[in-house]
Design a protein that fits this description.
alpha/beta; globular
């Protein structure tokens, strides 16, 4: 068994593979973090860093690939030529657990929904693990824990390496163009990838999906599965099982002969239209596994939210600072701008992913009083908004971005970091960008 990539997912897979009697070799073209080297050494697992020894890798019976490694790289193509199966950590770990799996995907909102679902199950006293894109490696938990339930956040890259794995409860929040560079710039390929969340599902399983998403609806016209369909909507009533919004009231029906769960959007800990969707999806997923309505209601009211996703940082002299560094695409930023109730100083920019800023023009016109660019190349943002916003400033580090925003802001304004771009031009990752932003705010 060869494992490509020595991060959380790769090292977790190595531990599980060793436990199951495989001869394991871990290879990473980059360098390992010290903690992972220690784990591999302590478990007597062979590894290499800074290179890939082709002879060894191409001799594998099966390869577990990190989701960060594209399918198009030469090494992966060579493995496929030799018909050596290349799978994801999730596929591998799924073979060794009988736990119920609630799996969540979508272009936006999946981390929040995953964390909220986990929070509800924990509060209800369930023996539950959190994995996939968040928490500890799923494979590591299968090797070292005995959970009855798992809540797994799954990216399209993880889903691409899953073949026999089956979700007991699958959640699809939305589909908007993202990561198209990994899908031959064909949106259809990305849509197909997201729908892999439902593969192998049977009449005993559940598919929770957003009935307001045109992309999902169109794909479902030519899609068939015996799975139980559970829609949610904020635009129209749902007959039978599902959740919907009427005015400010959420109604959640599961087993319609029982009383529905009813609460108002004002009661939700997470505010904003997108969070109504996230809250509905998490509620339905946990109701399906028999969490009591009262517990779900309490959990929706006391959930703390996640770091770098519309995270309140501080209020300084009446100016509020919000860290939404996790917003790395247009759709995420659209939701962030939409949910703000105060005049916005918008901090944005970074490594562009082929963004179409036209989708934001109306929101920016109505809500944004100034734009502070935080990136190496801001031409595209400036060109898109120069006729819409009077003040556009350029900065190339978090301290200057925060200081510039604070100078422009007046009491009652909000400074929103919601970049709509990847972070790799100036930062290690979106977490690093968010931490530097928060540090700069606290230094004001």
């Amino acid at each position: 068994m060869v494992i490509l990539g020595g991060g959380e997912s790769g090292v977790g897979s190595a531990i599980l593979a060793k436990q199951k009697g495989y001869d394991v070799f871990v290879s990473d073209k980059g360098t390992f973090k010290e903690k992972y080297k220690t784990i591999l050494t302590e478990n007597k697992i062979e590894f290499e860093e800074g290179t890939h020894t082709l002879e060894k890798i191409l001799n594998a019976t099966e390869v577990i690939k990190s989701p960060g490694i594209p399918d198009k790289v030469e090494l992966v193509l060579k493995l496929k030529e030799k018909n050596i199966p290349v799978i994801s950590e999730i596929e591998f770990a799924g073979r060794y657990t009988n736990a119920k799996k609630i799996c969540i995907t979508g272009s936006n909102g999946k981390t929040t929904t995953t964390m909220l679902t986990y929070h509800i199950l924990k509060k209800a006293g369930y023996n539950v693990g959190l994995g996939g894109n968040v928490g500890k490696s799923f494979a590591y938990q299968v090797a070292t824990e005995k959970f009855d339930y798992y809540v797994l956040e799954l990216s399209s890259f993880q889903l691409d390496g899953m073949f026999n794995f089956k979700a007991d409860v699958a959640v699809l929040l939305n589909i908007t163009p993202d990561h198209l560079d990994r899908y031959d710039y064909k949106f259809e390929n990305y849509i197909t990838s997201k729908f892999r969340i439902t593969q192998n599902q049977t009449a005993n399983d559940y598919f929770i999906y957003c009935a307001d998403d045109d992309v999902i609806n169109n794909h479902m016209k030519s899609w068939s599965s015996p799975v139980n369909l559970i829609p949610f909507s904020i635009k129209k009533p749902i007959d039978g099982n599902g959740a919907f919004l009427n005015g400010n009231q959420i109604t959640l029906n599961y087993k319609p002969n029982q009383n529905p769960l009813i609460m108002t959007i004002e009661q939700l800990a997470l505010q904003g239209k997108h969070n109504v969707y996230n809250s509905m999806a998490a509620s339905l997923a946990t109701r399906i596994v028999d969490v009591r309505k009262e517990i779900i209601k309490e959990s929706l009211q006391d959930f703390q939210g996640i770091e770098h996703r519309l995270e309140f940082v501080a209020s300084i002299n009446g100016v509020e600072f919000i860290n939404d560094s996790k917003a790395t695409n247009i759709n995420s930023t659209w939701y962030a701008l939409e949910s703000m109730q105060k005049p916005i100083i918008w901090v944005c920019g970074g490594q562009d992913k082929g963004n179409d800023y036209n989708e934001l023009i109306d929101l920016v016109k109505g809500k944004v009083k100034a734009i502070v660019c935080l990136g190496k190349n801001n031409k595209k943002i400036i060109s898109a908004f120069k006729d819409v916003v009077d003040i556009i400033a350029e900065t190339d580090n978090a301290s200057d971005a925060v200081a510039t925003s604070y100078k422009i802001a007046k009491k009652g304004d909000v400074v929103l970091l919601s970049p709509a771009c990847a972070s790799f031009d100036l930062f290690e990752n979106y977490e690093d960008r968010g931490m530097q932003f928060k540090g700069a705010v606290r230094s004001l």
